[in-house]
Amino acid sequence: MKTILVTGGSGFIGRNLCMRLASTVEERSGYQLIVLSRNPEKAVKVLPQSVQCISDLTQLNQPIDILINLAGEPIADRRWSEKRKATISQSRIQTTQALYEYFKQADKPPSIVISGSAIGYYGGGIANNQPVTEEGAVEPNFSSQLCAGWESAAQQFDQLGARVCLLRTGIVLGQQGALSKLLPAFKFGLGGPIASGQQWMPWVHIEDMVKIIIYAMQNDITGPINCTAPQPVTNREFAKTLGKVLKRPAIAPMPAAIVKLLFGQMGDELMIQGQSVIPQKLQQQGFQFNYSDLHSALEQLFKPKK
Fold this sequence. Notes:
The chain is an alpha/beta fold. The protein is built from 10 helices and 13 strands.
């Protein structure tokens, strides 16, 4: 039985991943799941019973075969002060560095390391219609510097003989995450495009996000992986499609000046800018997405529960 250590396991992506992996334990008897959490008592309440929760790496009492590193402070929940940016960086880069330092001393370090990153790696860009692959150029900003440092810390596991994958994640659509913050405005008919609406919004359904991580565990794929659906959309297209699925108008725009006034640098980088990121590496490997177009993804998320 392979042992998997997950950091950030009680977060949006981590929780869904653990639920899926826990379901495969009975199917294949293949994985033992351990979640490293700052608050294991809280994590236990949202994770499957079969998951062991620990608060410190010193509590590990067996070798780890696979490390899935998803830890990190929320990046879009408030304005970025200098203090906030430092906290965001520390929660990703220093956490990853601490994992490397721990496993560098281990008798048997993990053979597979799958570490979080984001499409923010590619930096700024407004209405750049050129598809961005894993080899795409970087337009520097805070997001790109954050992701570069995060990836650099994870890449050190190469030195321990691990196969390293870097998850450059787009906007993950599910019942939590970014979509939940957009819903109130759209449900009241107050949603609409942001700024010009021409900025790209590469997205991925939560089911496909989990599927990508498991694919990376089980297949010979290395380095950066763009975790986005094959059909990115502009912000205007996103708003129009979400409004259509919710049967609400989506024509109330939010001017760029208001975004910058309310959210500062965070709003500029995460809401006004955006590039057309595509999952070239996954497509070349033959990965099959469950949800390739936005309309079907949103319809699945909002269909009535039976």
